[in-house]
Write a structure and sequence with these properties.
Layout (H helix, E strand, L loop, with lengths): L4 H5 L9 E5 L5 E5 L10 H11 L4 E7 L3 E6 H17 L8 E4 L4 H12 L4 E4 L2 H4 L5 H10 L3 E4 L2 H11 L6 E3 L9 E3 H5 L5 H8 L6 E6 L9 E5 H14 L2 H4 L3 E4 L6 H13 L3 E4 L9 H8 L6 E4 L1 H11 L3 H8 L4 E4 L6 H14 L6 E2 L1 E3 L6 E4 L9 E5 L4 E7 L2 E7 L11 H7 L6 E11 L2 E11 L4 E2 L5 E2 L1 H11 L4 E7 L6 E7 L1 H5 L10 H4 L3 H17 L7 E6 L19 H7 L1 H6 L8 E2 L7
Parallel strand pairs: 3-13, 5-6, 5-7, 6-10, 7-8, 8-9, 12-13, 14-15, 15-16, 27-28
Antiparallel strand pairs: 1-2, 2-20, 3-4, 10-11, 17-18, 18-19, 19-23, 20-21, 21-22, 22-23, 24-25, 26-27, 28-29
Helix pairs in contact: 2-3, 3-4, 3-9, 10-12, 14-16
Length: 620
Amino acid sequence: MAFDNVRMAVATKETSPRIIMETQADGSIIVRQEGAIPAYPRCITERFMAWAQTHPDQVWMGQRNGTDGWQTLSYAEGRRAIEAVASLLVERGISVERPLLILSGNSIPHAVMALGAQHAGIPSAALAPAYALSGEDRSKLISVVEQLTPGMVFADHAERYLPAISAVLGPDVPLVSLTGVAQDRETIAYDDVLNTAPTAAMQAAHDAVTPDTIAKFLFTSGTTGSPKAVIQTHGMLCANQAMIREAYDFLIHEPPVIIDWAPWNHTASGNKVFNMAIYNGGSYYIDDGRPTTDGIHATIRNLREIAPTWYFNVPVGYQYLLDVLETDETLARTFFSRMRMMMYAGAGMSQAVWDRLQALAERHVEGGVPLVSGLGATETGPFALYHTDKKERPGNVGVPALGVTLKLVPQEDKLEARLKSPSITPGYWRNAPLTSQAFDEDGFYKLGDALRFAVPGDPAGGFLFDGRLAENFKLATGTWVAVGQLRSRLVDALGGLISDAVIAGAERDDLRALLVPNWPRIRELADGLQSLPPEELAVHPVVRSALEQRLSAHAQAATGSAARVVAAMLLKEPLNFDKGEVTDKGSVNQRAVLRERADLAEALYGDDPRVVHAIWKGKR
């Protein structure tokens, strides 16, 4: 296929960043990139308004309009909508003490409401819709409301959210909605909001915004406890985008075209990807699909029509895409027609998926396409570590971004990662004790992750994720288990039959695992499996035999007890969001699964017939 060699040549930097490493007297290691971040604006909407002035007709955002096409909003149209929302919020007295609560999936109105609030210096907080829609247990939603004390709520379709809104918000909190009316509170139609005329008060509020003004609150997904309101300032968001622009050179040379499904209530899409389009004058198309067996069909339909320059997905999403891209030449040509970079995160990618994706890219683009990852958190903007060069294997999270200082602190046999940069949060809203605990004596944010050198002693080679410190545990022998690294290796060893694993074995003699199945791949093991439900697949002889063979190969290749899983069981019931077993971005919460499924974890060490045992060194 034809492609633009000149544009591909500027996809990434031609020279590698110069990485400086220093070892301090206490044994900690400081790693940073030479240079300084270029100047950046005081707020994201300042950048938006500049594009609306210079490129008014450029598509800012697109959303699927039924099955026939796309509803789009230009930068000029977006400017008018943002100023209308900002004017209404200022008129209604919405403020940092009584911010805007957003209950909605990704949509153009959601984006306009959030940016309208930011434009006036008013924070918003977008929540995972599941907080309000996932049943009678509203404990997470109640916790969020108690922390925020919202002054207004936006719900795209009121009828979906009214039971939760009525249960947790007082009748004095007005509702903005596209459809539906609340009987217990004032309801303002979204179309009426857009008809609000810009006011001098709104302009004064915008002029008063500084880099230290709070732009939004993002709630952590609760993998280590209750959701926490992480402060996101305007300066954080803009500094992070300046870092990204320096890292990804193609953003400087052409406006990005993005099509993305990931939720905006999470930092990866809600901060990095959402703002990346705005900061660089690009176009963001909302993918209404999901990386699931059923949801991937919508994603494929959308990718037939929108060719991205930058693409993100979780590893299982790429796996679903590959099953189609490898056999549909027309779709593959469109997908790669202007691709500059592909990114994965959220879970470890298996070598098998990595190899298939690299081979496909090289078939359609001369020299291939960089397949990259990185490391960050809600508290870091999120962009902190990255790489843009091609790697031989998955797992490398790269080097500190320009402006980021990485501190590696020895902890047992691990190196704990801590970060400092202009895009680090000042703390947690209305929670001084938690804020104090999150930072060390030198002001570094404690990420909670362990890293190791990809090339021993050479920071320029990047770093490998070495597990969450809170997940790691000791065997009965006193040997530490690096859970994150082991999970990645086990997923790789099982060759696509699972998407993740939960490792059990604290204070035990050996390691065992609860496996998160990849049912579509499992059904491909033999004819006749396609129609079987999960409970029958999990115990089918063909499936058990395949698991035993691959688990045995893993056990035989392992170098010690802390790297060897000797038995496993497929989880027939999907992970439960309400119980904290999985986050809104699809990451598995190891500790929550072991807590909520303690009976299954215990069964791994008994004579339960559902357990598959590895055969290694004559043992079983």
